[in-house]
Design goal:
Length: 112
């Protein structure tokens, strides 16, 4: 879904503090993603820009058209109850994010 639909679906998201965990996450074809956590809902989500041309991400449910999308697209990859818990689960993310296909590392953290 696009970023505006994401916020419209639950206005609590729009009003909440958000914490970012990097904007250089990559998939197997080199698209880049931003990872953020919404404090009020506990949602951890990936956002990809309109230049993306991937058919499916590693989480299996984030489809982007073969042509560039019209806006910022998001997918919620998990729910984590507190900032401390997110930080624990993402320990080492700064280095992992810079690796090739870093979404694989992220996938392993949230699909045990």
């Amino acid at each position: 879904m696009d970023i505006e639909a994401f916020y419209q679906q639950n206005e609590t998201r729009r009003e909440s503090a958000e914490f970012e965990f990097g904007d250089e996450w990559t998939d197997a074809v080199g698209n880049t993603y931003r990872l953020s956590w919404v404090e009020a809902t506990g949602e951890l989500y990936l956002m990809i820009g309109p230049e993306a041309t991937v058919s499916e991400d590693i989480f299996g449910d984030f489809l982007v058209a073969d042509e560039p999308v019209s806006g910022l697209t998001v997918v919620v990859i998990g729910t984590v109850g507190s900032l401390g818990a997110v930080e624990d689960q993402l320990e080492g993310w700064e280095d992992a994010m810079l690796e090739e296909n870093s979404l694989e590392w992220l996938y392993e953290r949230f699909n045990d």
